[in-house]
Amino acid sequence: MKKYDLLIIGGGVSGCACAYIASKLGLKTALVEKNNYLGGLATGGLVVPVMKSETSGINTEFFSDLVLNAKKYNAQIEYSDGNKGWFNPNILKIVLDDMLSKNNVDIFFETYPTSVSKSENLVKGIELSSNMLSLYIEAKYYLDSTGDSKIFQLLSEDFFENDEKKQPSSLRFIMSGVDIKKLKNFLIKIDKNKDVTNYCKINGEIHLTSAYTWDDKGWNLAPIFNNALKNGDLEPHDTSYFQIFTVAGAVGSIAFNCPRLPDYAQNDPLDYSKKIIEGRKAIYRISLFMKKYFEGFENAYISQIADMTGVRESNKIMAVKQLTYNDLFCEKPPKNPILSGTYPIDVHSNEKNSSKLLKTGKYYMEISSLKSKNYSNLYAAGRNLGADKLAHSALRTQLSCMSMGEAVAREIFLQFEK
Ligand SMILES: Cc1cc2nc3c(=O)[nH]c(=O)nc-3n(C[C@H](O)[C@H](O)[C@H](O)COP(=O)(O)OP(=O)(O)OC[C@H]3O[C@@H](n4cnc5c(N)ncnc54)[C@H](O)[C@@H]3O)c2cc1C
């Protein structure tokens, strides 16, 4: 039987941050991931770029090291607004392999937990299954960074606001073969709102972003979408949300933050799967729409469809202290903040004019929002944090997820020091 100081289940950015920092601090660390790569939504979900947030430098060592390492692989740019988190989602898999392997993290790919053994208020060990064998691992501490709280599910724990409607998921994709200069000229002719459509030149290459939604907010790209609807080239739901970005180190590629999947019945895997099929059909429609209506896309093609569904919100743990909407306006740092941020409340909705994007103050989080209420050696980090819906919607972006993972590593290290 293998024994570790820390066993992490889930290798998205929160799990990677925790593994990287814990190992650096000298903890014997294992990371279990059901895919054959690291990064979770940031790689397999094609979620680029990292959204900007003012972190006050709290628990940002992993992000800084990620930027430095990705730069070496030509997999990162700094956008003109100072955001250093424009990564290449494919190369990031290699960067993360490299960073964690060099730090001696034991990585178990294509492995997932099947049961958890416990004793009173402690997790004792986790039974894992891979394509080769089953194995049982014990550790002093555990992190559930699966996004969906898989370990908490196996422990039959309750979840916060479990019956409430969750934010819609999306299935992201990339088109390549785009003439970016032509696209840039086309977009800036139509959309003069630089908060929505803007571009910059980095190392001689044009990078850009643009957006549209079906909410009544005076989007300058609206005539294009309305025209496509009138001509039957798009279906109404295809127009609910549209956001595009160029990709670092991938000349001529555009990453799409869409289509949103239609709502699926909670706890109905069959309905969920049907909505993923609808998502892929929507990707095909949107790709034809781009080629017909957007200059620069004439020779473009779908080069990648995310192999991880973009789940924004699922099981939020019951923490020692649930982070709430009010905490986002507190401004005053608590005694031991483990994270700071300014990314706004960002709740997607599949109903027209119901999405929320609300500015907050500078907010903070304490480790108690990542600690299991019932198990003293079990933590969560990332998008399954212990928060209410609105606080979660601000904290689920990648920079915060990385800080959460890093904070858990440091907290556990302190326990060993005592
Ligand atoms: C459509 C969409 C768009 C977004 N846009 C942005 C954006 O532009 N910028 C931004 O900063 N953030 C964005 N976000 C939010 C952000 O990407 C995620 O919240 C964040 O990446 C989550 O990181 P995580 O580590 O918590 O979880 P994940 O990235 O979901 O990682 C969880 C990991 O656990 C693994 N796992 C799950 N179950 C098991 C299991 N049973 N056994 C083993 N492993 C398991 C998964 O394979 C995965 O690797 C977006 C999210 C979505 C869905």
How would you characterize this protein structure?
The mean pLDDT is 97. With 418 residues, this protein is of the alpha+beta class. The chain starts with a strand and ends with a helix. Helix 1 packs parallel to helix 9. The strands form six sheets. Strands 1, 2, 5, 6, 7, 8 and 21 form a seven-stranded mixed β-sheet that branches. Strands 11-12-13-14-10-15 form a six-stranded antiparallel β-sheet, with helices on one face. The chain has a two-stranded antiparallel sheet with strand order 3-4. It folds into two domains: 264 residues, FAD/NAD(P)-binding domain; 133 residues, no CATH class. Helices cover 27% and strands 24% of the residues. Bound molecules: flavin-adenine dinucleotide. Flavin-adenine dinucleotide binds next to helix 1, strand 2, strand 6 and helix 9.
Main sheet? Answer: 7 strands, mixed
Question: How would you state the average pLDDT, rounded?
Answer: 97
Number of helices: 9
- At the first level of CATH, the class of the largest domain is Alpha Beta
Question: How do you describe this structure in short?
Answer:
By secondary structure, the protein is α+β, with helices and mostly antiparallel strands. It contains 9 helices and 21 strands.
Ordered list of secondary-structure elements with their pairings:
Blueprint: E1 2-9, H1 13-24, E2 29-33, H2 61-72, E3 76-77, E4 86-87, H3 91-102, E5 106-109, E6 111-119, E7 122-130, E8 134-144, H4 150-154, E9 159-160, E10 173-176, H5 180-190, E11 198-202, E12 205-213, H6 222-230, E13 241-246, E14 254-256, H7 269-293, E15 301-305, E16 316-317, E17 339-341, E18 345-347, E19 356-358, E20 363-365, E21 378-380, H8 389-395, H9 398-417
Parallel strand pairs: 1-2, 1-8, 2-5, 8-21
Antiparallel strand pairs: 3-4, 6-7, 7-8, 9-16, 10-14, 10-15, 11-12, 12-13, 13-14, 17-20, 18-19
Bound molecules: flavin-adenine dinucleotide.
